[in-house]
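ok so for the tutorial part 2 we go from a plain amino acid sequence to predicted structure tokens. step 1 is just haveing the sequence, like this:
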Amino acid sequence: MRTETRELYTAAELKAKFPEAFEKALEAYREIAAQDNCAWSNEICASGRAVVAAAGLRLCDWSVDQSRPSESFYHIGGFGNDDDENATGDYTGRKAREWITRAFLPKYKFNWRIKRSPGGCPFTGYCADDDCIDAIRDSIRNGETLREAFEGLAVVVAKQCASESEYEQTEAYFLEHADANSWEYTEEGEKA
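step 2 — the prediction. this is what the tokens look like for a chain of 192 residues:
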């Protein structure tokens, strides 16, 4: 039997002492991370669905594609009879703001003047709840109908996933993630 002793380094130590080995470790991490959706994609998607449900609406069909956000879609039901000329989904302006306020006030301290109302992330506990609510607020302010605002959440969710995925490829995220998980490396950049 033989005992081998090796010195191990955190990612930050590896970066400082062995920059080439650090680059090797970072590249290996990026290759693995690129194969997955962003780490928070399930939570981000859950926030989009929860905001729709919190407004008393139904998500009838949906697709979120972080690689092609503009092709993402939500089909929303629950706005009432779409053949009715006064269908809720067609509300804009003041009527849309009043409907949104009534829909969210019981569950969320909704405020038209500020983002991130106190007690944020009310539906799933994840910050994307507020991002989705902010997107609806902005869409209504920009003259979109309620239906357009809620169905537009699919693109918002996809862009959030893409942005998070992009951040997860950065050196800063790798250092943070490696530290949080107590990863150690050899001086050659191999994960121990």
